[in-house]
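dumping this here so i dont lose it
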């Protein structure tokens, strides 16, 4: 009983933490809601069908960075035009043969899902497969001429209109990289100051979470600032250096000894907070006020060096990570890519045959769900299904209540815009949170929009809403059965793939001369990030079917490997002399990562190792 209460309290605490505000969350949330309201109004005024799908594109694709959003919008407009042109050709050759059309759906779906899984194309492959399959399933429902001349044109409108609005909106009200990076660095500095002041920075959870965030994405944002000349070249170079220095500061602070002299600890905290205050006021941080002490630790020396760089001191040449090729090295040898594409295609085709056989076109969201919910491992897929179902039910409830109590009082597009804003605001708040809940927020907003946006004005009909919700639930059932019964992949292998990526970065760091390791922030950050992703993957073990679930002993070994990678990365980074026993520690971690779960091998049956690039297999559709 006590354990159950403790578990429930832990779950509630996690939910509260995931829903709590953080810098930038409210700003991104209201921007998404406003943009969805504008998209819905535009769809009503220009009679563009499926306004809910157009709004969904905004919710799914909108990011905090305006440059990324503008680039995504332009890219998707071009991609949509290319797909429409391709569909004209495909429809002409398959319109007279339902069998040929089904074969085309299956082949195109498999090819694009496979390419997306085995390359840097990632989720875009799933989007292309979904659009091709969805359009071809509509051929039998309307005259051929209408499909080619009107249907494809409106399909392009559905994507181009929201993307054009997103580009313009971000030009006017978006967060540009410089302001985003400043806010991120302020968060890093404030968290580091709090961690050092606590006296136990190595056990300060918020600091450790920031260390495992994706630093490469921030360096990319800094690159945009330089490439697009958003600031002068010297300022752009300093911003890039500050991004690395702020990570360097966190990394070194996490290794500060708990026995550090209190006076020096207070001086460090004061220097970090002074740097944050200067950055917030858009000034260069002041020179550090902490005196040099011959007895200072390596970690303290690195903290001070990071503050010096942020104050304008020259940064040493950066040791970069190798650029990844477009296709993964095991694209042709790892069967998991093909199996993932085959399972997703099979689930989509089964869903289509079910609703086509029942002549129930209203549940077409079943096929769409298969492309959206499929992930590389069974645990990840089931976790996403749980988020999709729970989000769908919450959003549907909001939508039904709106139809019953709000919609009768709305008689124009303006009132509908207000309703869309309020409903999307709820879903967007959740979707801008941590990854473990964000997809649930997307589904809350989508189910709400599917319910309230029907036709080209306010409507009180519930029929279409029930059909679409039923389709989502049907698709979830099909995906669950396929991904847990046909070549199920345990979460264990996703964790192993992340750990191997972290080990690769760690090996490159260990191979450097000790005096160059301080310049290898990209590899240190990558090792920390991959170790964090492995730990997050292992948190999904509870969602796996019992017959493929990893044993507690193996889970413990993999979590220990994650902690070892993080610990060794910090030790190597801070060392300025050869470290004895590094090869042995790397070998020990490698054995933990490569070791097979002998006790569970029989239970896994045919489950095989997942690809070494699990994140790229996380497919996400556009509906």
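and the seq i came up w/
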């Amino acid at each position: 009983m006590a354990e159950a209460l403790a578990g429930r309290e832990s779950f509630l605490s996690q939910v509260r933490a995931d829903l709590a505000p953080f810098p930038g969350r409210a700003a991104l949330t209201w921007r998404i809601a406003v943009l969805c309201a504008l998209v819905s109004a535009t769809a009503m005024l220009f009679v563009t069908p499926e306004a809910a799908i157009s709004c969904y594109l905004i919710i799914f694709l909108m990011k905090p960075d305006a440059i990324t959003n503008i680039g995504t919008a332009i890219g998707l407009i071009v991609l949509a035009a290319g797909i429409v042109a391709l569909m004209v050709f495909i429809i002409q050759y398959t319109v007279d043969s339902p069998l040929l059309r089904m074969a085309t759906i299956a082949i195109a779906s498999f090819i694009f899902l496979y390419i997306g899984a085995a390359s840097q194309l990632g989720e875009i492959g799933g989007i292309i497969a979904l659009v091709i399959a969805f359009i071809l399933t509509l051929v039998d429902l309307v005259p051929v001429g209408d499909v080619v001349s009107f249907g494809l044109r409106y399909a392009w409108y559905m994507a181009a209109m929201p993307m054009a609005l997103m580009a313009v909106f971000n030009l006017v009200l978006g967060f540009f990289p410089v302001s985003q990076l400043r806010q991120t660095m302020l968060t890093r500095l404030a968290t580091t100051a709090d961690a050092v002041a606590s006296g136990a920075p190595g056990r300060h959870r918020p600091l450790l979470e920031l260390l495992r965030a994706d630093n490469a994405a921030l360096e990319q944002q800094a690159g945009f600032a330089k490439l697009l000349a958003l600031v002068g070249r010297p300022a752009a170079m300093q911003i890039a250096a500050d991004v690395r220095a702020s990570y360097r500061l966190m990394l070194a602070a996490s290794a500060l000894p708990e026995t550090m002299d209190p006076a020096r600890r207070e001086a460090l905290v004061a220097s970090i907070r002074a740097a944050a205050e200067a950055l917030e006021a858009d000034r260069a941080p002041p020179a550090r006020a902490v005196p040099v002490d011959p007895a200072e630790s390596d970690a303290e020396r690195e903290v001070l060096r990071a503050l010096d760089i942020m104050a304008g001191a020259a940064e040493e040449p950066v040791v970069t990570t190798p650029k990844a090729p477009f296709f993964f090295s095991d694209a042709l040898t790892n069967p998991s890519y093909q199996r993932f594409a085959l399972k997703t295609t099979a689930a989509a085709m089964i869903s289509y045959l079910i609703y086509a056989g029942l002549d129930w076109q209203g549940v077409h969201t079943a096929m769409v769900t298969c492309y959206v919910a499929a992930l590389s491992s069974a645990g990840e897929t089931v976790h996403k299904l749980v988020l999709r179902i729970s989000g769908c039910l919450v959003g549907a409830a909001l939508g039904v209540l709106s139809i019953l109590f709000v919609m009768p009082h709305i008689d124009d597009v303006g009132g509908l815009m207000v309703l869309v804003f309020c409903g999307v605001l709820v879903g967007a708040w959740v979707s801008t949170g941590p990854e473990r809940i964000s997809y649930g927020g997307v589904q809350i907003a989508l189910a709400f929009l599917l319910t309230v946006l029907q036709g080209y004005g306010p409507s009180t009909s519930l029929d279409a809403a029930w059909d679409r919700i039923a389709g989502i639930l049907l698709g979830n059932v099909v995906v669950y059965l396929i991904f847990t019964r046909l070549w199920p992949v345990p979460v264990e292998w996703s964790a192993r793939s992340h750990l191997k990526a972290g080990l690769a970065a760690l090996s490159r760091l260990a191979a450097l001369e000790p005096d160059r390791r301080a310049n290898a922030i990209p590899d240190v950050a990558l090792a920390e990030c991959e170790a964090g992703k492995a730990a997050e993957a292992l948190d999904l073990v509870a969602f796996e079917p019992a017959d493929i679930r990893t044993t507690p002993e193996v889970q413990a070994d993999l979590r220990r490997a994650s902690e070892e990678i993080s610990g060794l990365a910090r030790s190597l980074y801070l060392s300025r002399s050869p470290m004895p026993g590094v090869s042995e520690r790397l070998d020990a971690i490698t054995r933990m990562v490569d070791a097979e779960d002998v006790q569970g091998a029989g239970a896994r049956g045919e489950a095989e190792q997942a690809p070494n690039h699990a994140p790229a297999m996380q497919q996400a559709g556009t509906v």
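Residues 1-7, 597-623 have pLDDT under 50 and may be disordered.
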